[in-house]
Write a structure and sequence with these properties.
Elements: E1 2-4, H1 21-32, H2 35-42, H3 46-60, E2 65-68, E3 71-74, H4 76-103, E4 108-114, H5 116-121, H6 123-133, E5 137-143, H7 146-154, E6 160-164, E7 172-186, H8 200-203, E8 207-211, H9 216-227, E9 236-241, H10 244-252, E10 258-261, H11 266-270, E11 275-292, H12 299-312, H13 315-323
Parallel strand pairs: 1-5, 4-5, 4-6, 8-9
Antiparallel strand pairs: 2-3, 6-11, 7-10, 7-11
Helix pairs in contact: 1-2, 1-3, 1-4, 2-3, 6-12
Length: about 325
């Protein structure tokens, strides 16, 4: 299994072997309105992306982008070309899925995206078990925040994604798969560690270390505080951490407290390295899987989705979350 921290999984171009590279490059530039960002997303060099788009423009004998003062925008012809490019790329993906289903093939890449909590603490064993049962499958796991995972699923650069909460993108289907409780986490000698449960109003009195904007955890916590009558801006936000591991390291120094998944801090709490205290009322969120609408998935994706949902709702996982 390959794990990527951000961006597209390696070998992306091989996932759709019949896809015209020019269309993929053009679509990426149109999406990001930047040749540099498109190159990063496709794991290509910027000159290569520029060359692919230039070839497409020469083929149609028209400009697809206006380039003025360091900015680019789609021309009217480019807007039409983008509509067809997205339809063509979608059809390639559907054809690949249908043919895999007809042949009964259970081999090839499986592109999975997951938010950090899911990717680091819940999914690795599930992906490993699935790989052991299906040796011909090559899973690739993209680790990013929930917003980034949703964007890549919507762009069909991932087969499916696991996120915290629900998707806000109309092009995606969201299906809840399990629950996850969030706790106040701090150093054992922190003032909050003395309490058996913590009301939201108590949090404003202490330094807070939270997740970055775009994180599913950040969104869930902010919504919880608002429902409790406390503005997120009322917290003494002293630092951001972009992963559960970063947050744990920061709060262990006594710098402040954080709010995170109990599953992410189970080991540290058991050994007394960190303290975790439930909120009152409890903060329980849905963990969900997102897939693109109107996309036909191959057998590998369908089998993994069913397998993952079964494992995430199994008693072993449920008991682990409860103990967290």
């Amino acid at each position: 299994m390959r794990v990527c921290s951000t961006g597209s999984p390696p070998g992306h171009e091989r996932d759709f072997p019949m896809t015209d590279r020019r269309l993929r490059a053009f679509q990426a530039v149109a999406k990001h309105l930047s040749f540099t960002k498109a190159a990063d997303a496709l794991f290509m060099t910027q000159p290569s992306v520029t060359f692919q788009v230039k070839q497409l423009e020469e083929h149609f004998n028209t400009r697809l982008f206006d380039r003025t003062q360091g900015r680019i925008a789609l021309t009217p012809a480019g807007a039409v070309a983008l509509e067809y490019a997205e339809r063509i790329l979608g059809l390639y993906a559907e054809m690949d899925a249908r043919m895999s289903g007809i042949t009964g093939q259970e081999a090839g890449p499986l592109l999975i995206g997951a938010s950090t909590t899911l990717a680091e603490f819940l999914l690795p064993r599930i992906v490993g078990e699935f790989k052991a049962r299906h040796p011909g499958v090559v899973p690739r796991l993209l680790v990013a925040n929930s917003e980034q995972v949703q964007e890549r699923v919507a762009e069909r650069r991932l087969d499916l994604g696991f996120i915290e909460g629900d998707s806000h993108l109309a092009s995606l289907v969201t299906e809840p798969v399990c629950e996850d409780e969030l706790f106040v986490v701090c150093a054992p000698d922190h003032a909050l560690a003395r309490h058996k449960a913590i009301a939201p109003a108590m949090l404003a009195e202490h330094a807070y270390i939270g997740r970055e904007s775009g994180s599913g955890t950040r969104e869930v916590v902010d919504n919880y505080l608002r429902k409790a009558g406390l503005s997120p801006e009322a917290l003494n936000f002293v630092m951001e951490g972009t992963s559960p591991e970063a947050l744990k390291g920061l709060v262990a120094t006594g710098l402040g407290f954080t709010i995170m998944s109990g599953a992410a801090v189970e080991l540290e709490a058991r050994h007394g390295v960190l303290a975790r205290i439930p909120l009152a009322p409890r903060l329980i969120r849905q963990l969900s899987v997102v897939t693109a609408k109107e996309r036909i998935h191959g057998r590998v994706v369908s089998d993994f989705l069913a397998f993952a949902k079964t494992r995430l709702t199994a008693p072993a996982h449920a008991s682990k979350r409860a103990s967290a």
